[in-house]
Amino acid sequence: MNIVTNTNNFVQLKGNVTKDVEPITIQNGNQLSKFTIAINKTVINANGQPVSKVSFVDICCWGEVGVATKDLKKGDRIQLIGDLVGNEKSTGQDGKIYYNTYVNAETILSITPKSESVTKT
Fold first, then answer.
1. Which domains are present in the chain?
2. What is the pLDDT of residue 1?
3. What backbone phi and psi angles, to 5 degrees, belong to 28?
């Protein structure tokens, strides 16, 4: 059982992986996976019609969770729990400063109907 200790910064998301996950081994030997999920939502527009909206969320996984994501493929549906990390900034080619927000996933569950799912906490 996982116990969430940081309830001030807690996210739970369900979405589809946008491309095959490729784990990275960094210099100190730690495993890291970075990927994006698409989250679909239906909203009602000003005319009362349902409209589909998609949000793309960057995900980062470290250690055993990063290793466990190696079999995730484009289109796989996952549910994750993690914390929101923000204010990483970089300067673009246009000279503007851009901020990045991502989710540091602590638990990932594959909910794609398969014979075997990826689960790691």
1. 11-120 (2.40.50.140)
2. 46
3. -85, 5
